[in-house]
Design a protein that fits this description.
236 residues, alpha/beta, Nucleotidyltransferase, domain 5, 2 domains, five-stranded mixed β-sheet
Length: 236
Amino acid sequence: MKILAVDTAAKSCSVAIVDKKSLVAETTIVGRQTHSKHLMKMISAVMGLSGLGISDLDGLAVTSGPGSFTGLRIGISSVKGLATASGIPVVGVSSLDVLAMQTAFSSYLIRPILDARKGEVYFSSYRFENDILKKEGNEQVLPPDKAICDINESCMFVGDGIFVYHDAIVEKIGKFAHFASHYQSTIRASTVAYLGMDRFERNDTDDVGLLMPHYIRKSDAQISASSVQTLKVPSR
């Protein structure tokens, strides 16, 4: 089974093709430019390196969030376009699931944290049990001190949030804090593909028309819209 996977959830942009359990081609960049400037070129480059055409693919996988609102829209809309044009099935994969998987196989509690800006982080909790990643609890967005206030055991932190809040985490939980390497904290499309593979093998795919970013919190535009009150014209 050949899977094309895309990630645009954070500052990095990554595209990969995986054939069963083998990585065929992958490219990842980290930059300040919007992902829309690079993504389609990266997809074309990876397809060229792999020697495959769109018709050779069995599935498409994309990070569905949480993460950058703009980044998620770019990645998901691009993959939905490919899926609609080709008829290839698609799955959305949690960016936090991907980060947790990239710590394999930590014996600690695993807490991926993504910088959500505005002094908050996206996070959830995981453990590896018999080499299988288990998710504990829902994905949330909270200030970093509240996101780690329940930790009273050794915990592996991973994700770009550790670069922003490293010192604050250590100050809060001390010896319980452990940090993944920088390369583990960059979301890789190959990991997105591997996680998506499990769903494809179970025929657990997403409806292309219903696949949407999982933001967790409302965007600024949604907040502004909900705060606007409708004014009624008084009857005469």
